[in-house]
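Q: My hope is that you can spare some time for a protein that puzzles me. Underneath my words sits a plain record pairing an amino acid chain with its backbone structure tokens. Those tokens are not coordinates but codes from a learned vocabulary of shapes. Thank you; the sequence and its tokens follow:
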Amino acid sequence: MSAETEQAIHDAIAVHIADINEDDPEYLTEWCVVASAVISTDADSTVYYYVDSSLPFHHSAGLLAWGKTHINETRLMSSMMDDED
């Protein structure tokens, strides 16, 4: 990935985080992104990508573990709300 693309990702995430709480802004320190893509010539195949801001392994592992927990909690809450309807 080019340095320009990596900087653009960093800038986009930083702006998003700063916008969440405008009264007490937070500042991006580290990030990682997991993405998937479908191969245009083989729609049944998926490629996965991982990109980070040159993190030490334990930092990226911690961010990904937190993300997995957050996703699970969000899905559980959504499921519980759907059951109430």
